[in-house]
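[audit] Reproducing an earlier prediction to check determinism. Same input, same settings, fresh worker. If the tokens differ from the archived copy the diff job will pick it up downstream; this log only records the rerun itself.
[audit] input (85 residues):
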Amino acid sequence: MHTTQEPFRSQAAPKSGTVEIKPVRLIRLPEVMRQSGHARSSIYDGIRDGTFPKPVPLCGRSVAWVESEVQQWIAERIAASRGVA
């Protein structure tokens, strides 16, 4: 029998104590465009080139991006522009 666990709670990890599970926020294309400053075509060009985070398929043709991955991409661009990378 399979039991379900409550989401976003600390759960015991095998042989390593507890792991904090943090909520993941998925954002749709308009928000990705707003946060990144890129147009739709530039985002999909970056995905194809492997330079922008890939979206997560939701259902049918619907996709969304993991917000933390988009924010990490932005942080890397900032660091590169400052000569930190």
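[audit] rerun output stored. Observation attached for the diff report: The chain has a mean pLDDT of 86.
[audit] end
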